Predict the structure.
Amino acid sequence: AQSVSQHNHHVILSEAASLELGCNYSYGGTVNLFWYVQYPGQHLQLLLKYFSGDPLVKGIKGFEAEFIKSKFSFNLRKPSVQWSDTAEYFCAVNALISPDSNYQLIWGAGTKLIIKP
Amino acid sequence: EAGVVQSPRYKIIEKKQPVAFWCNPISGHNTLYWYRQNLGQGPELLIRYENEEAVDDSQLPKDRFSAERLKGVDSTLKIQPAELGDSAVYLCASSLESTGGPYEQYFGPGTRLTVT
């Protein structure tokens, strides 16, 4: 079965630290990749997405992610985090399971990020 | 642009009782999804609609769960009877899709269900 792995379930950082959250997927075909964020008490929001083209994708609030096809990875990065980045981050992979099927969005378990002021 | 609207936001019921959740997608979005999210996990797809048609309900526990999307707009998800294990957040998402893909899904705030 296709799966998405987020390596860290909890990450605690101080403000201004650099962030990298790992995401690996198991599907070898055509994929589209997403990072969603859920701030405390709010709904899931799209942070950034990769469909095609430049594998380095820039999203909102200074986040970026790099698609490395050979490593089946789509890691999320931010050079300097802020207290307001405290949230849960989800990686999701939209995979075309077969030519006759629809895209299916497969989610990682999420990483809870806590930024200490 | 209004986002995806869900109600209620919270629901507490006793086991064996029925419960229903309502979703109004973003105007013009033809595809609607219901997900269940358990604590500490990512969302799991329950059912996906393209307009009025349920195109993927393989993960929907059909013995107790049902869903409908009349007129291809609003949708209702029902559980009857509820079990303790149904306690979770139920998310609705919508997207505008046509042949070719891929598409971005927009999420509602969810309904947090507690079954006692």
